[in-house]
Design goal:
419 residues, mainly alpha, MFS_trans_sf, globular, cell membrane
Length: 419
């Protein structure tokens, strides 16, 4: 297979630029918020609350967002999502204004940050399904796996640079002007997106009753063993392996490496995942996908345990790097399963369920980690999460032989015949 197949489509390249700018801005913003909130409170539970504030609206709106995405034109819907994110970024920029910090109480600023993060959860509930659906309208079906790999690689590259720049920019220019950089990237994404023309709506059931639409979407996901198995496995692993939410605690109180070290720690998993994803463009992962996914999740749990116990900065960075590398395998396989096994008219709803299972479990994992750290201590909480991840992978391998034998080559051959 041509490793650059998807990149030969101009609109897909534009899409990758837009996605990079958005993920860069979003990941950088989340890091800056984490740093500011922990600096205000010195309470690890406050870091978990950030995740909780985003996950509540993201989960509550997810299914309805999927229905709307399947009913609407995708390019303009993505424009609306990015515009909403830009407004939130502008609000956070104004909240971090030095004069305002002197005039307002710390609690007022904290609650205002939580409120904007809460609004961001509504935006995110639409953003993921819209992006997932738009990819399928830009490239032909036979190169979905290659397009999914490049899209995921772009996401990871932005996730590397966003947190890394966040850590350094906090040190160099402070929280306030870091927020200004984030706002600038969101505007760039918004402007560039207009280079992609509007796309046709593939759903033949326009105007279908909402609850019937939601029922059909859930029935499809829960009835497809490959999709349901991949989502469930990743959800539990991410839920209990959310050690990255506690990185400000490790950077400030355990490893004592400051904001620059925090940026390196935060970027390490994404560096590992990016290398894995770029390698997968030449060495596809669709053969024996089930076994590879289970092995990747198991290895992820081991990396999290090593990170939790480490008191050495270099060992912590290596553990996080390797956790990202194996998580990259998991992400590619899951995205390939979703792209290959989801019909065009259900992409919004399936992607919404995916965001509920996996995307939102990042924030729930952050809350779980923050709460566990408050009750058990930071190190114990991280090690506990890693052990639960190992247990999840092992149990799935034993009780689900069908998933363990999953291979995606037949699906790829079928789509090549259709095209």
């Amino acid at each position: 297979m041509d490793p650059y197949a998807a990149l030969r489509y101009k609109e897909f390249n534009i899409f990758l630029i837009v996605r990079f700018a958005m993920v860069f801005a979003w990941s950088m913003q989340f890091i800056v918020i984490e740093w500011q909130v922990y600096s205000l409170t010195k309470d690890p539970l406050s870091l978990g609350i950030i995740g909780l504030m985003e996950v509540i609206p993201a989960v509550s709106m997810a299914l309805f967002a999927g229905h709307i995405v399947d009913q609407r034109e995708k390019r303009n819907l993505l424009v609306t999502c990015i515009a909403g994110f830009s407004v939130i970024s502008l609000g956070l920029f104004l909240l971090s204004w030095p004069g305002l910090e002197e005039a307002w109480a710390s609690k007022t600023i904290l609650y205002s940050i939580y409120a904007l993060v809460f609004l961001g959860g509504f935006v995110r509930s639409f953003l993921g399904p819209t992006i997932f659906s738009l990819i399928a309208l830009i490239v032909p079906k036979k190169i979905y796996p290659n397009a999914a790999t490049w899209s995921s690689s772009t996401w990871q590259l932005a996730s590397v640079l966003g947190p890394a720049l966040a850590g350094f920019s906090i040190s160099w220019i402070g929280v306030h002007w870091s927020m200004c950089v984030i706002f600038g990237f969101s505007l760039f994404a918004l402007i560039f997106l207009f280079k992609i023309p509007k796309k046709p709506i593939m759903n033949p059931k326009i105007g279908e009753p909402v609850f019937q639409s939601l029922r059909d979407g859930l029935k499809f996901v829960f009835g497809n063993k490959a999709i349901f198995g991949a989502l469930t496995l990743d959800m539990i692993a991410v839920l209990f392996g959310g050690a990255v939410a506690l990185l400000p605690v490790y950077a400030q109180d355990i490893l004592h490496v400051g904001s620059e070290g925090f940026g390196i720690l935060r970027a390490a998993p994404a560096v590992g995942a990016s290398i894995t994803m770029l390698g997968s463009t030449r060495f596809p992962l669709h053969r024996n996908a089930g076994k590879k996914l289970l092995m990747a999740v198991f290895a992820f749990g081991i990396c999290i345990i090593v990170f939790g116990l480490s008191e050495l900065f270099w060992l912590s960075v290596i553990a996080l790097f390797l956790s990202g590398a194996v998580d990259g395998v998991s992400m590619i396989i899951r995205q390939t399963i979703l792209q290959l096994k989801t019909p065009d008219n259900m992409r919004g709803r399936v992607a919404s369920v995916n965001s509920m299972f996996v995307g939102s479990s990042n924030e729930l994992g952050a809350f779980e980690s923050g709460l566990a750290a408050k009750l058990l201590g930071t190190v114990t909480a991280v090690v506990f999460g890693g052990c639960m991840t190992l247990l999840t992978a092992g149990t799935t391998a034993i009780v689900s032989p069908t998933f363990r034998r999953l291979d995606l080559q037949d699906d790829i051959d079928l789509h090549e015949k259709e095209d």
